[in-house]
Amino acid sequence: MHSRSTEIAIEQAYFDAAAKHRARRIGELGDLAGAAAHPGAAAHLHRHADAARRAIGPADAAVAFGRMDDESGEVLYLGRSLIRDDNAEILVVNWQAAAAARYFEASHREPCGLRRRRTFDCVENTVRDFTDLVFAEIAAAVDQHLLDELARGRTGEMRDIVATIQAAQYELIRAPRDQLLVIEGGPGTGKTAVALHRVSWLLHAHAETLAAADILVVGPHPTFVRYIGTVLPSLGETEVELRDIGRLAPVVPRGRVEPAKLGRMKGEARMAVLLGRAVEGRIGVPEPAERLLLDGRFVTLPGAEVAEALTACRAADLPYVERRQLFRDRLGQLVVDRSGGSPGAAPAIANLVERLWPQQSAPAFLRDLFGSRNRLRVAAGADFTADEVAMLFRRGADRLSQEVWSDADLALLDEVDHLLDGPGRRYAHVVVDEAQDLSPMQLRAVGRRAAEGSYTLVGDIAQSTGEWARDGWDEVTRHLPTRHPVNVSALRYGYRVPRPAYEMAARLLPVAAPGVTGPEVVRDGPAQPVVHRVGLTERAGRVVAVATEHADAGRFVGIVCPAHCRREVEAALAANGVQWRSAERGELGGSINLVSPREAKGLEFDAVVVVEPEEIVASDDRGHRLLYVALTRTTGHLDLVCVGEPLPLTAPVRRGPAGDGADRAAGFTTREVRRLAEHLAGQVRGAAPEPYWDEVLAEVARQLRDGS
Fold it and tell me: Does the reported pTM lie above 0.90?
C-alpha cells in the first residue's frame, strides 16, 4: 500500500507519459494536410484534422478524469479522447466507448466486476488529488467526488459532467436513438447535462451516419442557450446547432407586447388551420378572358383554361412557392399555344402570375393578414369566434421593416414560412430543453425540423408554468410527429440543490403539482435558508445588501425578481454602485445577476436571493410552480426578502380598482396595499397638520388619476 503522495506521483507519471503520446498525435494531425496528393484532398484532410484535434481537446487538459480497476487486476483510464502509445496500446479510453461503460454503471449494489473506481482532481494535466470508491466498502450511492464537484463555485456557464456521471444518468445518455425520449427530473437532477452528454454519445455511437451538424438543441430563451453553450464544445462537439425557441422563426424585430389571452390563442394548434386557409386564400380567380400584351399585340387566354391550370397547380402536393412556379410554367405553355411563342412574353406572364398567385414572404404575409378583417374572417372559418377574429386584427406598420412582433407571433411566422417555401433545415435528432412550456405551435416548429422523429425532450412538470403549463407529458408529445416509441424516464436523485433549500421548496409541491414526486436530495448545504422580513421601503435595499454580501464572499449570485419589484431593485443596485448583469438582456456571468422567475429555469447560482415570493405566486396562474423554480436555483445559499409571506401556500388576494372587479395587472397584494398605506400615512402625518390631511389626500388622489 503506497502513501497518498506516492500514489499521486505514480498517477502523475502515467499522466505525463500519456500527454506525450497525445502531443505526438496532435503533431501528426498538423502534418496530415501536407501529405495530400492535390488541393482538394488537402482541404478534406485539413477539415478531418481540425475535427480530430477538437475531439482530442486542449493540449494542456488532463489526459484522464478517472480510472477503473477490475477485480482481475486490469486497469483502464478514462478521458475525453482515446490515447494510444507507439505500439498502438490503449493508454486512455474515450468515455463514450463501450469499454468505459462499467465506470458509470457500477454502484455499491452492482459493482459490475469492478474493485475500485478512481476520480482525479486535476489542474490542467497535474494530478492534485483523487477520490476512490472501493465497492466492497462503499455504503452510499453517490460518491464524494460528485459532492465536491457540486460544491465548486458556479461561473455563469454550465460545465460538462463526464467525471461525475451517475449510473442512472449514464443509462439515459446511452438510450437508443430511435425514440422520443422524455428525460423528466426535478431541480438539480442533471437532466440538461444528461441530454447534452447524450448528444455527444450519439455522435460517437453513430459516427458513420450521424454528424454534429445533424443535431439541433433548442432552449427556452437566449440566456439559457448561452449558459449551456460551452458543454458540447468541451466534449469535442463544436458543430451542433444551438438555438432558442424564438430563433426557429425568420429574423424579425421583436418586442411587441400583447394580452396574455391573445398570446395563448396564437399558440393553439387551430392557428395552423387558419394560416393554411389564409395562404390558399391568396391565390386569386382569373377573369373570364385574360388579355396579355406581347410585343405590341394582345393575346387573349380564355379564363376557363387559366382557371384549369390554376386548379391543377393548387392541387399539387407542394409548397406555395413551388406550386406558383408550376403555374407559371403552365401559363407559359398556354401563351405558346396561343401565340406560337413570343420573345416578349415573360414580363406579361410574370404580371399575370403576380396578380393571381402573388409572391409572398412570411413577415409580409402575416402583417397583411393581421391587418385585414375580411381575410382573417374568411381564414378563420368556423374555428374562431367573431371576438377572436377581432382580437387577431391589428393595424400593421407602414413599412415591413418597422413591424414589431410578439413572442407568440414567431411560431406563426415559422408556420407561414413552411407553408410558403416548404421544409427548411432538418435534423436527424432534436433536443428540446424546458419542453413542458412550449405551445402547440412552437412544438409544430420543433417537429418540422426532426427529419426522423428522433427527439430528446427535457423538463419537469412541476416547473411547467406560463400560458401552456402542462400536467402531463402526453399534452406535449402528441404535437410532435414521430414513428418511434415515446418513453418517459425520470431521474430520481437531486444533486445540485442542497437539502435545506429543497425542503423549503418541496412544501409547495402539494399546491403547485399535486401529482409530482420531488427528487431525493443527496447533499446538505452550507447554510439554512434565511428569511428577511422587511417593510416595503426597505425591500430593495435589503435585496442589494444581501446580494452584495454573497458576491463579496466570491459567490455567483442570482437575484430572482418578479416584474412588479424589478424597477425598485434596479434603482437600488444603481444607487449603491453595484455592477450587475441582466438575463432579460441575454447576459449572465457577473458576480450579481438579475433574472425573472421564468428566466431562472435551468440556471444555477452559488447564492440565490428571492424577492417577494407572494408577487411571484401572484404573477402567474401557476405561480406556485414559478416560486418552486426560484427556490431551487441555488447550489448553496438561499435568502428570501419579502414584505409578504415567504412561502405562500395559497394564492394572494388580488383585486382591481373599486367597483370593476378586475385583477390588478401588477398583482399588488392586499398586504402590500396595507404596508404602502402605512408608509404614506406616516409621511402625511409628519409633514402636514391634521386639519389638512383630507385635502392633501384628495390632491394625491387627483394627481394619481391625472398622472401629473
Answer: no
